[in-house]
Amino acid sequence: MTADGSTGSGGSRTDGAGPGGDARLDRALVARGLARSRTLAARLVDAGVVLVDGVAVTKPSHRVGEGTRIDVSRPERYVSRAAHKLVAALDAFQGVDPSGRVALDLGASTGGFTQVLVERGVRHVLAIDVGHDQMNPAVADDPRVTSLEGVNARDLDAASLRERLPGDAPDPADIDLVVGDLSFISLRHVLAPIRRTVRADADLVLLVKPQFEVGRTGVRGGIVTDPALARDAVRGVLDAAHATGLGIRGIIASPIEGTHGNRELVVHFAPDGTDPTEWTRRLDELTTGGRA
């Protein structure tokens, strides 16, 4: 199976170079159907899984000719690298099986989280994002997906969401699973809107990004450099969730670093979760290495 899903002898092709007879490696991967986008192509190259005439190449700008053989030893299966964050969370957290559930994906972007939910048997996903024209068509065209663009998560409520949904989409009152990978906004601003939009017993699996929680003064070069500050910022999110009636059922480190190398966490919130104070040691381990 080739990287684009067509039948073949392997993830390799020798056609598709540019008009000038050669092309950048990342462009060639897309042209030959071995990657869905240049961004994904660059990630495959950076990961060292792209072979050019049998030799691993790690520069996306490397030039290849029409007759150059390109092999991808481990094609990217998801439309977004971020999908692996949700994969890790669903594998780690007990009781968060998407199968048969109605889910809300906040900050859906290209659709990595939505794709994972569909792969795991979700009944339907309402995928929202404040941006436009971002979701990969391969995800958006699935009948189990309803994509809503130009929706700000902090403005959510059941009534306004219901007005925007097509007639064949599930009602917001049926949403019992919320996932989210939001940027440039504190989760403290969206927890209450989520709660007033979905079922009272819904599970929430959300990325907590310290770089968007500490405020501008806590970030240097886009990175939260003080682990204690990151810990306190995450604790603020946990406390805010508790104030809305949500407890904590699990916390893991994201398997993928955030922008500029920030260390992010994935948290499972639920009404039957425990008090944030019971997660102090776990939070210390994940943010400061256990150092106060």
UniProtKB/TrEMBL annotation:
Residues 7-21 have a biased composition (Gly residues). InterPro entries: Hemolysin_A/TlyA, RNA_MeTrfase_FtsJ_dom, S4_RNA-bd, S4_RNA-bd_sf, SAM-dependent_MTases_sf, TlyA. Residues 23-87 form the RNA-binding S4 domain. Pfam families: FtsJ, S4. One of its GO terms (molecular function) is RNA binding. One of its GO terms (biological process) is methylation. Residues 1-22 are annotated as: Disordered. Signal peptide: none annotated. Keywords: Methyltransferase, RNA-binding, Transferase. Belongs to the TlyA family. PANTHER family: BACTERIAL HEMOLYSIN-LIKE PROTEIN. This is TlyA family RNA methyltransferase.
